[in-house]
Specification:
This protein is of the alpha/beta class and 407 residues long. Helix content is 41%, strand content 14%. It has twelve helices and 16 strands. The strands form five sheets. The chain has a seven-stranded mixed beta sheet, with helices on both faces. Strands 11-14-13 form a three-stranded antiparallel beta sheet. The longest helix has 41 residues, at 272-312.
Amino acid sequence: MPFDFTPLFPASLPPPAVRWTGTPKYNFVGGNNDPDEVPLDGLMAAAQLVLQREGRTLATYGLNSGPQGYRPLREFLAVKLKRDAGMSCTADDILIVSGSLQALDLVNSALLSRGDTVIVEKDNYQGSLNRFTKLGVTAIGIPLDKGGMRMDALEDALKDLKARGVTPKFIYTIPTVQNPTATVLDESRRARMLALADQYGVPIVEDDCYADLVWSGQRPPALHAMSKSDNVIHVGSFSKSIAPALRVGFVVAPWQIMSRMLALKTDAGSGALEQMVLAEYCKPLFATHVPALRKGLRKKVETLMEALNEQFGTAAEFDDPQGGIFLWVKLPDHVDSLKLYQAALKEGVAINPGPEWSTDKAHSQSRIRICFASPTHQQIREGIAVLAEVCRREFGVPTRSGNVAKA
Protein backbone atom coordinates (compact mmCIF):
# COMPACT_ATOMS: atom_id res chain seq x y z
CA MET A 1 0.00 0.00 0.00
CA PRO A 2 1.31 3.51 -0.78
CA PHE A 3 2.28 5.61 2.19
CA ASP A 4 -0.51 7.91 3.45
CA PHE A 5 0.80 11.42 4.09
CA THR A 6 -2.63 12.82 5.01
CA PRO A 7 -2.32 12.41 8.82
CA LEU A 8 0.94 14.39 8.72
CA PHE A 9 -0.49 17.55 7.12
CA PRO A 10 -0.79 20.51 9.53
CA ALA A 11 -4.26 22.01 9.93
CA SER A 12 -3.07 25.32 8.47
CA LEU A 13 -2.16 23.77 5.10
CA PRO A 14 -4.09 25.27 2.16
CA PRO A 15 -6.36 23.02 0.05
CA PRO A 16 -4.55 20.75 -2.41
CA ALA A 17 -3.77 22.04 -5.87
CA VAL A 18 -5.66 20.65 -8.83
CA ARG A 19 -3.53 18.62 -11.21
CA TRP A 20 -2.75 20.60 -14.38
CA THR A 21 -4.48 19.15 -17.42
CA GLY A 22 -3.36 21.61 -20.08
CA THR A 23 -4.01 25.18 -21.17
CA PRO A 24 -7.61 26.04 -22.11
CA LYS A 25 -8.24 26.73 -25.79
CA TYR A 26 -9.14 30.34 -25.02
CA ASN A 27 -6.94 31.36 -22.11
CA PHE A 28 -7.78 34.81 -20.70
CA VAL A 29 -6.32 34.25 -17.22
CA GLY A 30 -3.00 34.87 -15.52
CA GLY A 31 -0.40 37.53 -16.18
CA ASN A 32 0.91 35.93 -19.35
CA ASN A 33 2.33 38.12 -22.07
CA ASP A 34 2.39 38.00 -25.86
CA PRO A 35 4.66 35.10 -26.93
CA ASP A 36 5.35 36.82 -30.27
CA GLU A 37 6.80 39.82 -28.43
CA VAL A 38 9.36 37.90 -26.35
CA PRO A 39 12.69 39.20 -27.75
CA LEU A 40 14.17 35.77 -28.37
CA ASP A 41 16.95 36.76 -30.77
CA GLY A 42 18.21 39.45 -28.44
CA LEU A 43 18.03 37.22 -25.37
CA MET A 44 19.89 34.40 -27.13
CA ALA A 45 22.63 36.76 -28.28
CA ALA A 46 22.86 38.25 -24.79
CA ALA A 47 23.16 34.80 -23.25
CA GLN A 48 26.00 33.88 -25.58
CA LEU A 49 27.92 37.11 -24.90
CA VAL A 50 27.55 37.19 -21.14
CA LEU A 51 28.33 33.50 -20.67
CA GLN A 52 31.47 33.79 -22.77
CA ARG A 53 32.60 36.77 -20.71
CA GLU A 54 31.44 35.91 -17.18
CA GLY A 55 30.16 32.35 -17.20
CA ARG A 56 32.76 31.15 -14.71
CA THR A 57 31.18 33.32 -12.01
CA LEU A 58 28.24 30.88 -11.98
CA ALA A 59 30.46 28.80 -9.71
CA THR A 60 29.95 31.40 -6.96
CA TYR A 61 26.72 32.15 -5.11
CA GLY A 62 25.82 35.71 -5.97
CA LEU A 63 28.04 35.93 -9.08
CA ASN A 64 30.63 37.89 -7.10
CA SER A 65 28.01 40.64 -6.77
CA GLY A 66 26.83 39.97 -3.22
CA PRO A 67 23.42 38.96 -1.85
CA GLN A 68 21.47 41.81 -3.48
CA GLY A 69 21.83 40.37 -6.98
CA TYR A 70 23.92 40.74 -10.14
CA ARG A 71 25.40 44.21 -9.98
CA PRO A 72 25.21 45.10 -13.71
CA LEU A 73 21.46 44.42 -13.60
CA ARG A 74 21.06 46.63 -10.53
CA GLU A 75 23.09 49.35 -12.23
CA PHE A 76 20.84 49.16 -15.31
CA LEU A 77 17.78 49.45 -13.09
CA ALA A 78 19.13 52.50 -11.27
CA VAL A 79 19.56 54.30 -14.61
CA LYS A 80 16.20 53.11 -15.96
CA LEU A 81 14.26 54.10 -12.83
CA LYS A 82 15.80 57.58 -12.92
CA ARG A 83 14.96 58.02 -16.60
CA ASP A 84 11.45 56.57 -16.58
CA ALA A 85 10.13 57.10 -13.04
CA GLY A 86 12.19 60.00 -11.71
CA MET A 87 13.69 57.86 -8.93
CA SER A 88 17.06 58.68 -7.41
CA CYS A 89 18.59 55.41 -6.26
CA THR A 90 21.82 53.51 -6.66
CA ALA A 91 22.56 49.85 -7.25
CA ASP A 92 23.03 49.49 -3.49
CA ASP A 93 19.39 50.47 -2.91
CA ILE A 94 18.10 47.62 -5.10
CA LEU A 95 17.47 43.97 -4.26
CA ILE A 96 16.90 41.45 -7.07
CA VAL A 97 14.21 38.90 -6.22
CA SER A 98 12.52 35.90 -7.83
CA GLY A 99 9.62 37.81 -9.32
CA SER A 100 7.60 40.53 -7.64
CA LEU A 101 5.69 37.92 -5.64
CA GLN A 102 8.84 37.16 -3.66
CA ALA A 103 9.25 40.89 -3.12
CA LEU A 104 5.75 41.08 -1.64
CA ASP A 105 6.42 38.03 0.54
CA LEU A 106 9.58 39.65 1.89
CA VAL A 107 7.83 42.94 2.61
CA ASN A 108 4.97 41.11 4.33
CA SER A 109 7.33 38.98 6.39
CA ALA A 110 9.30 42.01 7.51
CA LEU A 111 6.32 44.17 8.45
CA LEU A 112 3.17 42.15 9.10
CA SER A 113 1.86 40.09 12.01
CA ARG A 114 -1.47 38.31 12.43
CA GLY A 115 -4.18 40.81 13.27
CA ASP A 116 -2.52 43.75 11.50
CA THR A 117 -4.35 46.05 9.09
CA VAL A 118 -3.29 47.24 5.63
CA ILE A 119 -4.97 49.59 3.16
CA VAL A 120 -5.40 48.52 -0.47
CA GLU A 121 -7.39 49.45 -3.56
CA LYS A 122 -10.80 47.74 -3.40
CA ASP A 123 -10.24 45.97 -6.71
CA ASN A 124 -6.78 44.50 -6.43
CA TYR A 125 -4.21 41.88 -7.33
CA GLN A 126 -5.39 38.44 -6.25
CA GLY A 127 -1.87 37.37 -5.23
CA SER A 128 -1.63 40.20 -2.70
CA LEU A 129 -5.16 39.76 -1.33
CA ASN A 130 -4.61 36.03 -0.84
CA ARG A 131 -1.38 36.67 1.01
CA PHE A 132 -3.03 39.09 3.41
CA THR A 133 -5.80 36.57 4.10
CA LYS A 134 -3.31 33.77 4.70
CA LEU A 135 -1.37 35.95 7.15
CA GLY A 136 -4.53 36.85 9.08
CA VAL A 137 -4.23 40.50 8.06
CA THR A 138 -7.26 42.76 7.52
CA ALA A 139 -7.22 44.50 4.12
CA ILE A 140 -9.30 47.69 4.02
CA GLY A 141 -10.41 48.29 0.43
CA ILE A 142 -10.51 51.85 -0.92
CA PRO A 143 -12.83 52.41 -3.93
CA LEU A 144 -11.44 53.47 -7.29
CA ASP A 145 -12.77 55.65 -10.06
CA LYS A 146 -11.37 56.28 -13.54
CA GLY A 147 -8.43 58.07 -11.92
CA GLY A 148 -7.47 55.22 -9.61
CA MET A 149 -7.71 55.11 -5.82
CA ARG A 150 -9.97 57.87 -4.50
CA MET A 151 -8.07 60.11 -2.11
CA ASP A 152 -11.22 61.28 -0.30
CA ALA A 153 -12.03 57.67 0.54
CA LEU A 154 -8.43 57.02 1.61
CA GLU A 155 -8.54 59.99 3.96
CA ASP A 156 -11.86 58.83 5.43
CA ALA A 157 -10.46 55.34 6.02
CA LEU A 158 -7.34 56.67 7.73
CA LYS A 159 -9.45 58.95 9.95
CA ASP A 160 -11.77 56.07 10.87
CA LEU A 161 -8.91 53.73 11.69
CA LYS A 162 -7.19 56.37 13.84
CA ALA A 163 -10.44 56.96 15.73
CA ARG A 164 -10.52 53.24 16.48
CA GLY A 165 -6.89 53.22 17.61
CA VAL A 166 -5.67 51.31 14.55
CA THR A 167 -2.54 52.31 12.62
CA PRO A 168 -2.26 50.45 9.28
CA LYS A 169 1.09 48.81 8.68
CA PHE A 170 1.17 50.18 5.12
CA ILE A 171 -0.81 51.34 2.10
CA TYR A 172 -0.41 48.80 -0.70
CA THR A 173 -1.08 50.37 -4.09
CA ILE A 174 -0.62 49.65 -7.80
CA PRO A 175 -0.69 53.27 -8.95
CA THR A 176 0.52 52.90 -12.54
CA VAL A 177 -1.70 50.64 -14.70
CA GLN A 178 -3.57 49.20 -11.75
CA ASN A 179 -4.43 45.51 -11.63
CA PRO A 180 -7.22 44.76 -12.56
CA THR A 181 -8.66 48.20 -13.49
CA ALA A 182 -5.71 49.52 -15.58
CA THR A 183 -6.15 53.01 -14.11
CA VAL A 184 -3.22 55.39 -13.67
CA LEU A 185 -3.03 57.58 -10.58
CA ASP A 186 -2.15 61.12 -11.66
CA GLU A 187 0.56 63.23 -10.05
CA SER A 188 -1.82 65.29 -7.91
CA ARG A 189 -3.38 62.19 -6.37
CA ARG A 190 0.08 60.75 -5.78
CA ALA A 191 1.05 63.91 -3.91
CA ARG A 192 -2.12 63.69 -1.84
CA MET A 193 -1.49 60.02 -1.00
CA LEU A 194 2.04 60.85 0.15
CA ALA A 195 0.76 63.74 2.27
CA LEU A 196 -1.82 61.48 3.93
CA ALA A 197 0.79 58.79 4.50
CA ASP A 198 3.05 61.33 6.23
CA GLN A 199 0.18 62.79 8.23
CA TYR A 200 -0.90 59.41 9.61
CA GLY A 201 2.56 57.85 9.88
CA VAL A 202 1.90 55.04 7.39
CA PRO A 203 4.45 53.81 4.81
CA ILE A 204 3.54 52.91 1.22
CA VAL A 205 4.29 49.75 -0.76
CA GLU A 206 4.27 50.76 -4.43
CA ASP A 207 3.73 47.81 -6.79
CA ASP A 208 4.94 49.17 -10.13
CA CYS A 209 4.99 45.95 -12.15
CA TYR A 210 2.93 47.28 -15.08
CA ALA A 211 4.42 50.78 -15.31
CA ASP A 212 6.37 50.07 -18.51
CA LEU A 213 3.10 49.31 -20.33
CA VAL A 214 1.43 52.75 -20.35
CA TRP A 215 0.35 53.17 -23.98
CA SER A 216 1.69 56.70 -24.28
CA GLY A 217 5.07 55.73 -22.86
CA GLN A 218 4.71 58.66 -20.42
CA ARG A 219 4.04 57.66 -16.82
CA PRO A 220 3.78 59.90 -13.75
CA PRO A 221 6.78 59.94 -11.41
CA ALA A 222 6.89 57.02 -9.02
CA LEU A 223 5.61 57.55 -5.50
CA HIS A 224 9.13 56.60 -4.41
CA ALA A 225 10.50 59.52 -6.44
CA MET A 226 7.99 61.99 -4.98
CA SER A 227 8.38 60.97 -1.33
CA LYS A 228 10.15 63.48 0.89
CA SER A 229 10.29 61.16 3.91
CA ASP A 230 11.76 58.03 2.30
CA ASN A 231 8.68 56.03 3.33
CA VAL A 232 8.00 54.18 0.05
CA ILE A 233 9.03 50.61 -0.75
CA HIS A 234 9.08 50.28 -4.55
CA VAL A 235 8.49 46.89 -6.20
CA GLY A 236 9.03 46.16 -9.91
CA SER A 237 9.43 43.29 -12.32
CA PHE A 238 10.62 42.19 -15.75
CA SER A 239 7.65 39.81 -16.05
CA LYS A 240 5.47 42.20 -18.06
CA SER A 241 8.19 43.96 -20.02
CA ILE A 242 10.29 40.94 -21.06
CA ALA A 243 8.83 37.55 -19.98
CA PRO A 244 7.04 36.27 -16.86
CA ALA A 245 8.76 32.87 -16.80
CA LEU A 246 12.13 34.53 -16.16
CA ARG A 247 10.93 35.25 -12.58
CA VAL A 248 13.06 38.35 -12.06
CA GLY A 249 11.77 41.23 -9.97
CA PHE A 250 13.30 43.88 -7.76
CA VAL A 251 12.76 46.00 -4.67
CA VAL A 252 13.99 49.54 -4.02
CA ALA A 253 13.91 50.35 -0.32
CA PRO A 254 15.77 52.18 2.47
CA TRP A 255 18.50 50.09 4.09
CA GLN A 256 16.55 49.97 7.36
CA ILE A 257 13.92 47.72 5.71
CA MET A 258 16.19 46.29 2.99
CA SER A 259 18.49 44.79 5.62
CA ARG A 260 15.54 42.97 7.19
CA MET A 261 14.35 41.64 3.84
CA LEU A 262 17.85 40.41 3.06
CA ALA A 263 17.88 38.51 6.36
CA LEU A 264 14.59 36.87 5.34
CA LYS A 265 15.73 36.00 1.80
CA THR A 266 17.30 32.65 2.63
CA ASP A 267 17.19 31.11 -0.87
CA ALA A 268 20.93 31.61 -1.58
CA GLY A 269 20.06 34.09 -4.33
CA SER A 270 17.60 34.39 -7.20
CA GLY A 271 18.30 32.75 -10.56
CA ALA A 272 21.73 33.93 -11.69
CA LEU A 273 21.60 33.13 -15.40
CA GLU A 274 18.37 35.07 -15.83
CA GLN A 275 19.92 38.12 -14.17
CA MET A 276 23.03 37.95 -16.33
CA VAL A 277 21.07 37.63 -19.58
CA LEU A 278 18.69 40.44 -18.67
CA ALA A 279 21.50 42.82 -17.81
CA GLU A 280 23.29 42.06 -21.07
CA TYR A 281 20.09 42.43 -23.13
CA CYS A 282 18.46 45.37 -21.39
CA LYS A 283 21.27 47.92 -21.38
CA PRO A 284 21.33 48.29 -25.21
CA LEU A 285 17.86 47.05 -26.21
CA PHE A 286 15.23 47.52 -23.47
CA ALA A 287 14.34 51.05 -24.54
CA THR A 288 13.53 49.95 -28.10
CA HIS A 289 11.85 46.66 -27.17
CA VAL A 290 9.18 48.04 -24.84
CA PRO A 291 7.55 50.49 -27.31
CA ALA A 292 7.11 47.65 -29.79
CA LEU A 293 5.60 45.49 -27.04
CA ARG A 294 3.18 48.26 -26.08
CA LYS A 295 2.12 48.70 -29.71
CA GLY A 296 1.30 45.00 -30.05
CA LEU A 297 -0.61 44.91 -26.77
CA ARG A 298 -2.63 48.01 -27.71
CA LYS A 299 -3.75 46.31 -30.93
CA LYS A 300 -4.84 43.25 -28.96
CA VAL A 301 -6.96 45.20 -26.48
CA GLU A 302 -8.60 47.00 -29.41
CA THR A 303 -9.51 43.59 -30.85
CA LEU A 304 -10.88 42.55 -27.45
CA MET A 305 -13.01 45.68 -27.05
CA GLU A 306 -14.37 45.28 -30.59
CA ALA A 307 -15.25 41.64 -29.88
CA LEU A 308 -17.00 42.52 -26.61
CA ASN A 309 -19.01 45.28 -28.30
CA GLU A 310 -19.98 42.94 -31.12
CA GLN A 311 -20.95 39.99 -28.92
CA PHE A 312 -22.34 41.72 -25.80
CA GLY A 313 -23.30 45.23 -26.87
CA THR A 314 -24.13 47.33 -23.81
CA ALA A 315 -24.32 44.19 -21.63
CA ALA A 316 -20.53 44.40 -21.18
CA GLU A 317 -19.26 47.62 -19.60
CA PHE A 318 -15.60 48.58 -19.51
CA ASP A 319 -13.24 51.54 -19.75
CA ASP A 320 -10.62 51.78 -22.44
CA PRO A 321 -7.48 50.88 -20.43
CA GLN A 322 -4.51 53.23 -20.24
CA GLY A 323 -2.07 50.34 -20.61
CA GLY A 324 -1.24 46.86 -19.40
CA ILE A 325 -2.53 43.41 -20.26
CA PHE A 326 -5.94 43.28 -18.52
CA LEU A 327 -9.49 44.50 -19.14
CA TRP A 328 -11.86 44.77 -16.15
CA VAL A 329 -15.36 44.03 -17.47
CA LYS A 330 -18.74 44.57 -15.77
CA LEU A 331 -21.50 42.18 -16.89
CA PRO A 332 -25.21 42.50 -15.97
CA ASP A 333 -25.86 42.42 -12.21
CA HIS A 334 -27.48 39.00 -12.24
CA VAL A 335 -24.40 37.32 -13.76
CA ASP A 336 -22.48 35.38 -11.11
CA SER A 337 -18.91 35.43 -12.40
CA LEU A 338 -17.86 32.51 -10.19
CA LYS A 339 -20.53 30.34 -11.82
CA LEU A 340 -19.71 31.82 -15.21
CA TYR A 341 -16.06 30.81 -14.72
CA GLN A 342 -17.05 27.16 -14.25
CA ALA A 343 -19.50 27.11 -17.17
CA ALA A 344 -17.11 28.90 -19.53
CA LEU A 345 -14.20 26.63 -18.62
CA LYS A 346 -16.24 23.62 -19.74
CA GLU A 347 -16.42 25.31 -23.16
CA GLY A 348 -12.66 25.94 -23.22
CA VAL A 349 -12.74 29.59 -22.10
CA ALA A 350 -10.79 30.57 -18.97
CA ILE A 351 -11.56 33.91 -17.27
CA ASN A 352 -10.82 35.41 -13.85
CA PRO A 353 -14.02 35.89 -11.78
CA GLY A 354 -14.23 39.29 -10.13
CA PRO A 355 -14.64 38.25 -6.46
CA GLU A 356 -11.11 36.81 -6.51
CA TRP A 357 -9.78 40.29 -7.37
CA SER A 358 -11.60 42.47 -4.86
CA THR A 359 -12.07 43.11 -1.16
CA ASP A 360 -15.79 43.62 -1.88
CA LYS A 361 -17.30 40.37 -3.16
CA ALA A 362 -20.76 41.85 -3.80
CA HIS A 363 -19.34 44.76 -5.80
CA SER A 364 -17.27 42.43 -7.96
CA GLN A 365 -19.77 39.56 -8.29
CA SER A 366 -20.64 40.35 -11.91
CA ARG A 367 -17.17 41.51 -12.95
CA ILE A 368 -14.48 39.53 -14.77
CA ARG A 369 -10.83 40.16 -15.54
CA ILE A 370 -9.68 39.30 -19.06
CA CYS A 371 -5.99 38.99 -19.92
CA PHE A 372 -5.67 39.85 -23.61
CA ALA A 373 -1.90 39.61 -24.03
CA SER A 374 -1.35 35.91 -24.64
CA PRO A 375 -4.18 34.85 -27.02
CA THR A 376 -3.94 35.64 -30.73
CA HIS A 377 -6.33 38.12 -32.31
CA GLN A 378 -8.32 35.22 -33.75
CA GLN A 379 -8.45 33.45 -30.38
CA ILE A 380 -9.69 36.67 -28.77
CA ARG A 381 -12.55 36.96 -31.26
CA GLU A 382 -13.49 33.28 -31.04
CA GLY A 383 -13.14 33.08 -27.26
CA ILE A 384 -15.34 36.13 -26.62
CA ALA A 385 -17.98 34.71 -28.96
CA VAL A 386 -18.01 31.47 -26.96
CA LEU A 387 -18.13 33.40 -23.68
CA ALA A 388 -21.11 35.39 -24.92
CA GLU A 389 -22.98 32.21 -25.85
CA VAL A 390 -22.33 30.82 -22.36
CA CYS A 391 -23.64 34.06 -20.81
CA ARG A 392 -26.78 33.88 -22.92
CA ARG A 393 -27.37 30.22 -22.11
CA GLU A 394 -26.56 30.32 -18.39
CA PHE A 395 -27.73 33.81 -17.38
CA GLY A 396 -30.11 34.99 -20.07
CA VAL A 397 -27.90 37.83 -21.22
CA PRO A 398 -29.83 39.35 -24.17
CA THR A 399 -28.97 38.09 -27.64
CA ARG A 400 -28.46 41.62 -28.84
CA SER A 401 -25.51 43.74 -29.86
CA GLY A 402 -26.46 47.35 -29.27
CA ASN A 403 -29.89 47.54 -30.90
CA VAL A 404 -29.27 44.82 -33.45
CA ALA A 405 -30.49 41.29 -32.73
CA LYS A 406 -27.88 38.54 -33.12
CA ALA A 407 -28.46 36.32 -36.11
